[in-house]
Amino acid sequence: MQTPEFILVTTNYDTHIALIQLNRPKELNALNLQLMLELKEALRELDANDDVRAIIITGNERAFAAGADIKQMAGKSAIDMLNIDQFTTWDSIKKTKKPIIAAVSGFALGGGCELCMTCDMIVASETAKFGQPEIKIGVMPGAGGTQRLTRAVGKALAMEMVLTGKFISADEALAAGLINRVVPVELYMNEALKLAREIAAQSPVAVRLAKESVLQAYNGSLDEGLVFERKNFYLLFAGEDQKEGMAAFVEKRAPLFKGK
Ligand code: HXC
Fold it and tell me: Quick check: is 117 in a domain?
């Protein structure tokens, strides 16, 4: 793999743990297309590396990731979005066989929340904030949010988060079943490493098949749900409210939605 620009990858062969750090700090790790391609490639390589038994994805203290890159998406049409086909990248991340732990501090919003829900476990700092705020920029979750969030926290909270864009705290996320544990901010990486070490000490083949089996229980009609969600996400790029919502974000003003 060429040296990636927006992620940092380190591998510890003593512990068999690999760490991927999302690295666009000024943009709160907004997930542009290149970052997602780099993440996909890194996961593909780590998945094929027999010396790696657990993978941690993290951001920094301020942000895990504040969502897909709104500036990159703002001017796109529905057909542009369809042709860019970024969800093929997301689908291949979903297929990683090794266990992935998200170590989350600060914002995990939109695609950032969807990325950590695509991971197998989530360890959060007390400062973590989870949310699907796409509704505020005239769209909706597109990378699994309506499906995975609803399965994790139930309809009531998922509906409220998706329809209002409200954020929930790490403690609320723990109570709702979205995440595995919450620790003080100075400990979240240690805690993720501790969990990764416990998993890396097990039989890699048993871990692989056990992960696959847990996901199978959870899968059901998830793929149908994702296809459904994706069509609706693309459809919103045919409307004026998506242009207005994203332009307003870039211009730092309140959006004026017209329902068109
Ligand atoms: C592009 C982003 C960004 C994003 C933040 N930035 N989030 N750029 N895409 N998703 C940029 C800001 O424009 C700003 O750049 C810099 O990061 C710091 O952000 P601020 O807004 O100044 O910080 P703060 O006031 O602390 O507010 C933090 C925030 C806010 C609450 C997280 O940035 C925010 O609301 N971000 C957008 C969250 C969101 O709507 N996410 C969903 C995206 S859609 P400048 O240049 O001004 O310094 C999505 C769809 C996924 O994820 C499905 C398809 C994959």
Answer: yes
